[in-house]
Amino acid sequence: MSSYSRISKAFQHPCRLPLYQDSRYVLFSDCHRGTGRSNDNFLKNEFLYVSALKYYEEQGYTYLELGDGDELWENRSFCAVKSIHPDSFELLGRFFRQDRFYAVYGNHDIIKRKKKFCQTYCQDYFCQCHQCSRSLFPGIRFYSGIILEDQEHQMDIYLTHGHQADFLNSVLWPVSRFLVRYIWRPLEQLGIPDPTSAAKNHRKKKSSEKRLARWAAQQHHLLITGHTHHPMIGTPSSPYSNTGSCISPSGITCIEIQDRCLTLIKWTLGTKPDRTLYVKRVPLGTAICIDDYA
User: Fold this and answer.
1) Dist CA 66 CA 109 (whole Å)
2) Using CA atoms, how far apart are residues 122 and 171, in angstroms rounded to an integer?
């Protein structure tokens, strides 16, 4: 099966959500929440992530996670991940209870596509503060794709993780998981990057993005993915965008959809005149109206 067919297959049985003029969606991907060890790249940015989620909860956004939310290649235990990041999961659980949380699975958390896994591990989490189990995602389903159906001008937005463009991380994902878990993770601690990763291998990153952009152009769809960790907003001639990731040393990125416009956002540290630090929200470029892609 070609990469074109794999990307198309992701939208055969998608989650469909309405996109109105007043809809508010925020798209995150590649959080790679880990177990708090040296390879937990999310840990150093969690305070930015929690601050961002509190903002989006207050502003009435629906949270969409485009895969690799949790690092389940390097780590076997999802329970360990949940126990290390209770603040993040408390917020995600609140979004879910308000019917404002939807997610697709990526290659690093592909196990979430199994109904049994969700029934066993996604129902609750243990809250250290209250020393009890609290509701998380009871009855959740993780999708291969999400389609935001435009109720105004029929310019739908297609959302998936993006690993479908990468043969090694889609078709051969069990092999890649083995290599990451038992070979590249120990070597990464010595400073040797994983050559199988589209996020760390620039050649693989560009190759995956070209396939995703080609699919979007040929299908005449606005496509947004994660996977490559390369934040970008597409142009009318190239309707492919990427949310970036939550593990960059400089901060976290996401895409806001508001007033039928896309805006790439970075959350990072800022300094006030009195030299105190604060979390700031920085738009990267101007908002692009969905109608511009038509």
Assistant:
1) 11
2) 25
